[in-house]
Design goal:
The chain has one domain: Pnp Oxidase, Chain A (Roll). The chain is of the alpha+beta class. Helix content is about 15%, strand content about 40%. The chain starts with a helix and ends in a 12-residue tail after the last strand. It has a seven-stranded antiparallel sheet. Strands 1-11-12 form a three-stranded antiparallel sheet, with no helix packed on it. A two-stranded antiparallel sheet has the order 7-8. The protein contains three helices and twelve strands, in the order αβββββαβαββββββ.
Length: about 170
């Protein structure tokens, strides 16, 4: 790996990011993966962007699905994030509190918010794919809570933390 790649990876490892789980249904099977690259993209049309590091497995299912859900996770959902970040971990279990929407996607009802979306466009960059996804619906969860963050390989909670907003 190059010095540039190492520096880039280190810089982003220390940059906090929101945590989301994307779920999809393809041919009756449920798929999901954890991402930390979700970003607002457009208000007209309403769209978000995210990246996928590969195009097989759960990522391939998201690319093949007619629509999917992007769950912005709450700070008490770090175990769910972990499960969808590691192959072979428990997924779509009853204790993860999901339901299937009439449109077929699995929905984690305790996530503060989820977007029902479909791929608008995508572009390959190196071994990754940047996705622009058009949002069709916003689903608010049962509990409003702070969102889960990820930094330097750890999940972080924001509850009770506020930056000093006093200006000099």
């Amino acid at each position: 790996m190059s010095e540039l790649s190492d520096g880039f990876r280190t810089a982003f490892r220390h940059h906090p990011a929101g945590v989301a789980v994307i779920t999809a249904a393809v041919d009756g099977a449920f798929y999901g993966l954890t991402i930390s690259s979700l970003a607002s993209l457009s208000i007209d049309p309403v769209a978000v962007s995210f990246s996928l590091a590969k195009e097989s497995g759960a990522a391939g299912a998201v690319l093949a699905a007619p629509s999917f859900l992007i769950h912005m996770l709450g700070e008490d959902q770090h175990e769910l994030a972990n499960n969808f970040a590691h192959p072979g971990a428990p997924r779509f279990t009853s204790d993860q509190h999901f339901r299937v929407l009439p449109t077929g996607e699995p929905h984690f009802i305790e996530a503060p918010v989820a977007f029902r979306a479909s791929i608008h466009s995508s572009i390959s960059v190196g071994g990754s794919r940047l996705i622009a996804a058009e949002v069709h619906a916003v689903l608010f969860g049962h509990a409003q809570q702070q969102h889960l963050l990820y930094q330097d390989r750890e999940y972080l909670k924001l509850s009770g933390l506020r930056a000093d907003s006093t200006t000099s």
